[in-house]
Amino acid sequence: MQDAKTEADSSAETPPREGVSHEERRTDPSARRLAILGGSCLALALAAWIVALANHEIAFTVRGAWGVVAGPLMAAGTLLLLVANGRRTRAEAQLRESLRAQSEQLARTNDDFEQFAYVASHDLQEPLRAIASFSTLLVRRYRGKLDAQADEFLGHIDAGARRMSELLRDLLAYSRVGRSREPFVMVPSARALDAALENLDEAIAAAKPQIERGSLPEVRADEAQLTLLFQHLIDNALKFRGDSALRISIGAERRDGGWRFHVRDNGIGLEPRFGERIFVIFQRLHPRERYPGNGVGLAICKRIVERHGGRIGVASRPGEGAEFSFTLPGAAA
Description:
Elements: H1 2-12, H2 22-26, H3 29-54, H4 59-123, H5 125-142, H6 148-179, E1 185-188, H7 189-199, H8 201-207, E2 210-213, E3 218-221, H9 223-239, E4 247-255, E5 258-265, H10 297-307, E6 312-316, E7 322-328
Parallel strand pairs: 2-4
Antiparallel strand pairs: 1-3, 4-5, 5-7, 6-7
Helix pairs in contact: 3-4, 4-6, 5-6, 6-10, 7-9, 9-10
């Protein structure tokens, strides 16, 4: 009994055979059985016919049997194949409908999230401004008039209110990327880069980087978002620079019918294992005291690129700088 149970357990745990496709596993098993049976009927009818033609000595014997069984076999085989095909067609239609329903549900979920993020970040700004204003008044009026612990508490309140205001502002900027309804038009990406550099004028003046830029193409895009994409990537290079003189290279090349852009620097770099994490909203790799920010800029970059149908990634190692690249598919040459 123990051996029988062991054998049953091992057979139950046997993994599905290799080489079976995902679609085959989804196919109705009864439709497959009907198709096999129908094919067997047709094969038997064909074999009887071939034997009758190939061996004249038994032709007269087989011919009689052929006349009796061939017709029913062929009819049965054809009918079974038609039934199997009908069942498979219904199963495929049900699968397509299920995938369509799941896609619509995912789209609704994304829309709900964007709406929630927008409303939360926008509507919470007003009460938070009131908290920040009164906490600032408390700090100004009572700092030094109470004990040291009270001053510390007031400082925490003021810093917390400012921090929350920054997070809500960044969350609002993140949600606005998905809510944009601006149409894509042909945009000189060099013009978008110029606007981004102008927006970063003060940070560039402070870091004094050497910026190299190659020839940039015209692409079909939302110009405001393309500018924001360049701005966040260059700002990231300015922020995470190393001890040596900063160099930033910006360029583009043809790739798979679209364009592959890069923003390359010689900054502090990062571990390759963090290459996905840095594009998640509010994810940081370094203490805020050393590198300011809330971990939203690269998440916005990813959202912009995906809205344009492209992909974004980073190649980097610690101390060797980083190369951020993104694609814009289907752009004009």
